[in-house]
User: What shape does this take?
Amino acid sequence: MLAAGLGLLISTANAALIDSPARVVELLHNQDWQQRARAVSYASASALKDDKVRSALIETLVSENQAHEQWYADYVAGKNPLGFNKTKGEGYGEYYGDLVALVAKQKIPGSLEALVTADGGQQAAVSAFGSEAARSMIAHFRLTKNAFNRVAIIRTLGKMAKAGQITGSLKEDSKALVYNEATKDHDPEVRKSAVENLLRFDKDQAAKVLKVIAESDDRSYVRKTDNVKVYPVRDAAKKELDKIQK
Assistant: This one.
């Protein structure tokens, strides 16, 4: 009974909100991600108003992003076939998502770049900073080698264009990125994502680009189920052309 009671007390203490800004910062700087997760989950509203806590949140997100980038580089090099979250252990993905969501919710000045470079953070950046996020995403697309991020950026820019969240020169710059760079990207998943978002920017120009891609993209593989050679980017372009013709 005593042991069970003690366990309950410890559990309750761990779940209590953390009001001390210094303690929140200490946890965010801890080498153990589970301790960092405690800070993200239990920092009180008053602690989150503290400038040092807010700075530490950005620093933590930047550090997590850098770890993701290193994993991706190793993954591409064949050094680590496992997904990033699996290398960190159960619960890490939830913590990382909560960190991104918290930074976005707080709308911390100076956090835009960290949100844009986070895996899955692009939409959170839009929620926090609106159209300003598009400019940052365009810049990051040209810097990152992470294909997952480039795909997410293209999809997010496409959503923003469709929703009318980007206009004028910003929309033209986003369109130019999708049309002129993403469709020629070395990664086929990025090209496919670009193909699937062209119509959100310009129907007339899209038709011309899609016709070329539908006939020339070189990404292919042999489907195991029927031993047929498949061209996924070409097929995606043909589907988009069908939408125009309907």
User: Anything to note?
Assistant: The first strand starts at residue 221 and ends at 223. Confidence is low (pLDDT under 50) at residues 1-13. Residues 19-129 form one domain.
